[in-house]
Write a structure and sequence with these properties.
mainly alpha; Arp2/3 complex 21 kDa subunit ARPC3
């Protein structure tokens, strides 16, 4: 039987995801992409509605924002990426067994570590071997010295942003625990898993759209910043929203 109230809230969340995603800033490196505040609503959709309805709200709302904003080429990728983000958060939120929580969290940490190391190595290797080609591909770079400077900057930001995710997640977890809210570490790891998938998913999307396997790497820190901001906002507003939204 269809839960009419849950369907209604799903429609509301579609609108909120679309609106929040429309508040965007263009990415400084690759044209056509942007960062936005929509991820906080993606996370809240999964938390409040469950992974099925949450995935529908996240995917449809984000895709509509791309279409309405003139980013049609991103819409199919965004639909898939945001749906799976919500699914990851919803699954993490529903885990009950301690063994399952440990396995999930350990997997996220391992995949995140491999992803960051691979991205850093890929960028370093590309700068050493195909610098002239990269100068042509990256709009904000006009010379090899500028490319090397950009590489050093991205490497530093990538490392710092990764460490900040850990610190912020731990801080939010401690804050929510002191406030007595039902938020555990596994749930936060679910949001981090969603952010990791977003970074990987949009790397693949940029590779398909622009044909470069290196240039998308420099946008990874911006994706990390985007989902980290979304994580902070979502966790801070979750508790008061949970008190007023009744889905049963």
């Amino acid at each position: 039987m269809v839960n009419v109230r849950r369907v209604a809230y799903t429609g509301i969340m579609v609108a909120l995801v679309t609106a929040a995603t429309s508040l965007k800033l263009p990415m400084p490196i690759v044209s056509g992409g942007y960062v936005h505040l929509g991820d906080c609503m993606v996370f809240l959709s999964a938390i409040l509605l469950g992974w099925k309805y949450g995935a529908a709200a996240a995917g449809l709302g984000s895709m509509l924002a791309d279409i309405m904003g003139g980013y049609m080429q991103w819409a199919p990728f965004t639909l898939i990426i945001k749906v799976l983000m919500a699914v990851l958060v919803g699954i993490a939120f529903s885990l009950k067994k301690k063994k399952s929580k440990i396995y999930f969290s350990s997997s996220v940490i391992a995949i995140w570590t491999v992803f960051v190391i691979t991205a850093k190595s890929l960028l370093n290797k590309a700068v050493d071997t195909i610098s002239p080609q990269l100068v042509d591909e990256i709009e904000t770079v006009n010379s090899v010295p500028e490319l090397i400077s950009l590489n050093n900057y991205v490497q530093t930001v990538l490392l710092v942003s990764t460490l900040l995710v850990v610190v912020i997640a731990a801080g939010l977890g401690a804050y929510m625990y002191r406030k007595g809210h039902n938020i555990n570490l596994t749930f936060i790891m679910g949001i981090i898993a969603a952010g990791l998938w977003m970074a990987i998913g949009y790397y693949i999307a940029e590779y398909v759209i622009y044909g470069s396997y290196v240039v998308p790497v420099v946008n990874i820190p911006f994706n990390i910043l985007q989902f980290t901001t979304g994580m902070i906002i979502a966790l801070l507003v979750y508790a008061p929203l949970k008190k007023i939204i009744i889905l049963k």
